[in-house]
Amino acid sequence: MPTFSRIKVWDPYKRLGISPYASEEEIWGSRNFLLEQYAGHERSEESIEAAFEKLLMTSFRRRKKEKINLKSRLKKQVEESPPWFKNLLNFVELPPKDVIFRRLFLFAFMGGWSIMNSAEGGPAFQLVTLKRSHVAVSLAACIYFLNEKTKSLARASIIGLGALASGWILGSVVVPMIPTVLIHPTWTLELLTSLVAYFFLFLACTFFK
What is the pLDDT of residues 83-131, one digit of tens each? Predict the structure, then answer.
């Protein structure tokens, strides 16, 4: 049975036969290759695993340190920012990823639903009514989520209506600037403005507090 020749090599990089600048993928690859070569020899396997675990812990500590340094830099930049920016940050929060994805899915679904109804065609007044009902449902969902956080229906309604108005105004200004060749023939100005409004409602109910 072959014996690992670098069992007593102290440096874990040299023991695994990789560069000190090796990536995690290279570390894993070297470990798996060596374990396959010296499978069945207990001391060789223990030596390879010990070097691998040491490098993995070093990599973990490095990533953790980089993350802490990034947070420190961001915190310093916030502290050195103008007062108006600090006040703006008091109204913003970063929720858990699952909350972000759930709400993103909801408003993306509303946008997709509006696009599908627009593509189906039909009487103009019926399409307008459908689009407005979608916007109303999205606004109600936004206010509901905000009310859950703020525990104030009045504040939630103000933020929700403000987000809807901001999105609608911005959409009305920006959408006409988009070249017509980039827009689907069935996509009207009102539909595209609605999509911008959905995005603003998503931002408001997800990141505002």
Answer: 766 666 677 788 888 889 999 999 999 888 888 876 555 444 444 565 6
The CA R_g of the chain, rounded to the nearest whole Å, is 28
Q: Could you tell me the CA-to-CA distances from 73 to 65, 68, 80 in Å, in that order?
A: 12, 9, 11
CA-to-CA separations, 9 to 34, 38, 39, 42, 183, in angstroms, rounded: 15, 16, 19, 17, 64
Please give the single-letter amino acid code of residue 105: F
44, 38 contact by CB (below 8 A): yes
User: What crossing angle do the helices spanning 124-150 and 153-174 adopt, rounded to 10°?
Assistant: 140
* Nearest CA among 192, 176, 194 for reference residue 184: 192
What's the pTM value of the predicted model, to 2 decimals?
0.56
